[in-house]
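Dear colleagues,

For the upcoming journal club I promised to circulate an example of a predicted protein-ligand complex. I picked one with zinc ion because it came up in last month's discussion. The inputs are reproduced below in full, followed by the predicted structure.
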Amino acid sequence: MKYLVDHEKKSIHRTTYANDKCRFNDTHVDKREFTIDLTYIERLKIEGNYEECEFCNILAAKPQGI
Ligand SMILES: [Zn+2]
């Protein structure tokens, strides 16, 4: 799983499920970061108060095909 970190809005997206509602396109490219490092993601959530984006994570939680 590849993640997109929005450092401006402090949100974490899953690139596979990211969509127009995610709004990270408003964020300057310098403030966006791609990573596959889940440890880093967890640290951002715990120490940085980053939140997982509701739009791509709701999709990620659903089984395929729904
Ligand atoms: Zn998102």
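Two points we might discuss: The pocket of zinc ion is lined by residues 13, 18, 22, 53, 55-56 (CB under 6 Å). The first helix runs from residue 38 to 47.

See you all on Thursday,
B. R.
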